[in-house]
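ENTRY TYPE: paired fold submission
RECORD: A
CONTENT: sequence, then structure tokens
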Amino acid sequence: MPAQTQKTNVPALVLEGGGFRGMFTAGVLDVLQERGLTGFSSIWGVSAGAINGSNFRSRQIGRTMRDILAFRDDRRFMSLWSFATTGDIAGADFMYGEVQDRLDPCDIETFNESETPFYAVVSDVTFGTPDYLPVRSYPEDLVKVRASASLPTVSRVVEIDGHRYLDGGTTDSIPFETAMGLPGAREVEGHIPAERALVVLTRDRDYVRGDGSEAIALKSHRYDAYPYYLEALRTRGERYNAQREHLWELEREGRCLVIAPEGPVTVGSSTRDGESLLTLYVAGRRQAEARLAEIDAFLCADC
């Protein structure tokens, strides 16, 4: 793979997924927006991170938090009923239609006017590899965010331009390596890699991933026709843990600034308890507020 030569010293913003654990990320991003700390060279979102990134690009403070709290008990939002009736545990028509267009509309004008490149990370089911889809304008590109957040086993495959996509976390859970153009990472057409990255995680620093939901996906036999994707499912935990070790190395070198929950996150990917969800959001806000000076210095290294 050719080495990247041109780079920017303006940090990239990298957002991990995790379903409703994204409430932590929402708290962090809302504080950054309130303080005007929005000068990133690019935004990279995986699954729930892509949803958070979308609201960050449209400058809608509080939107992720209020939508999860407002609709968490609505069976059209995320439920077994939705899965049984639509094939998606997270109701695509409701989330990306009813909420997006009417109940809590996205500020499409602000989103489309933004000059900050935004990428939704997806997994190509045929090849078992990550893809980084540029999300340039709404509503046309909203399907790319949906694809990034379509969990294996409980979501339908999303087809875009002849490719079959599911949740990006399976193949690249924390895409700082691609955002920074590091050796071995995929080169994304038109993207100028960043020398540095602000990375928001939804798991604490001591977390070690096991088989998790991938074991369920493998046992379901839904993807037996896609051997490369099966391999990606089998190896996700190992790759994820190694990726985090690489992230800590870059943090020690000063090339990444990592914001993560202080302790184990008990909120699951579809927790409905409003108090727990709000507490996690507040935890994200407190982390960002406590590190404002550090974040500001990181973003303005050459100011």
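RECORD: B
CONTENT: sequence, then structure tokens
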Amino acid sequence: MANKGSILMERYELGRLLGQGTFAKVYYARNIRTGQGVAIKVIDKEKVLRVGLMNQIKREISVMRLVRHPNIVHLYEVMATKTKIYFAMEYAKGGELFNKVAKGKLKEDVARKYFQQLINAVDFCHSRGVYHRDLKPENLLLDENENLKISDFGLSALVESKHQDGLLHTTCGTPAYVAPEVISRKGYDGAKADIWSCGVVLFVLLAGYLPFQDSNLMEMYRKIGKAEFKCPSWFPPEARRLLPRMLDPNPSTRITLAKIRGSSWFKRGISIPSNSTIVDETSTDLRNTKDKQEMAVAAAAAWIPKLNAFDIISLYSKFDLSKLFEEPCLKKEAKFTSWKPASAIISKLEDIAKRLKLKVSKRDEGLLRFEDMKEGKKGTLCIDVEIFEVVEAFHLVEVKKSNGDTLEYQQILNEGLRPGLQDIVWTWQDDQQPQQSQDEQPNNQLQQQQRLDNQQQLPEQQQQQQQLKGSPVH
């Protein structure tokens, strides 16, 4: 393994081969510093350049930076040499869900658990403007605790990929799991197509075989187009009612993720709020009682994700590795830091949203979504605000446009959010000096420690960045 690149070898000790495809191999590896087990995806740069798949690799990097969820494989870092690209990812010890299904149908409770985790993760992806487009048991992995992890975002699409008609037009996915509107090549809604694929996955989990099967590909496409399938006798009645609504050949009448999550079969066995949604937007109790509202804010704050060192580096512009892989574009996001508790940040954001007449429609693991009440130039303006805990009592907040017109977003950001947040913001990422109020000055000892840490860490970070800049991905 000595030829695998000095950058990689400095950080990881490579082990056995886990799998391989045409353009990449995946190895088990161990982080030398922490001892953590990871999966290293090694991509042959020359091969992907030769067949024109580099944009797919760039998209996968961009997407995996956007979607951080307990049921999605986590991308720790990306490294590159002149000939290779390396993804250091979360290691899913349990392997592919496909291996379980290949042995036969699953018990109802087991199938429901995997389905719940799949829907929660897909819902989170859609809230970030990401559509997977290749959901199947081979791309669903299991960790050591039998929790599902979505992987392989190589075929995923972003909101920005939509044409002027608001639809996606690239035909992709695996034939048996692909939605009929994708096959027709007339344009499709990425969210609706993912829901169809989730329906096929659910059928496979409960049946042990595919709903649409035929040795003739065109005949299989015909069955998919007309949704010709039959549920086996052992399917529970509630699942029998849910599946035809997911496998509805008409995307405009196909069931939504919200209604799937509201179905009686899906909700069975859930005794606590799901990872994906801490506070349900349809809950009326939380709207009527101030105490319950405060409890809801506190509950949401408890789910704030913590950042590791690579997360912190990648979120700051000076160390943003995405510039190696992404084209520059109009500013659609802003970041600020605060010494206020997460609950105070959430309360402040909700107050500002109310004042600006923005609807707070979701709260997912530190993620708030604001929606404009009126239609804008490019549809409804949606702004995602995600809160991360850097260290105890110190938070980084990312404000990002997920839909709508960028100029409208900039106006709300600069004329509404920035002025309204000034009493809780320590510093905006692009500002030169921190905006400290009298009651939130960090103590001198902490500041001195931060300066010492920065002095120790900067040379190593600059070296990492320089190594990557010396061998950019083309």
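NOTES ON RECORD B: The chain has 17 helices and 16 strands. The radius of gyration is 23 Å.
STATUS: closed
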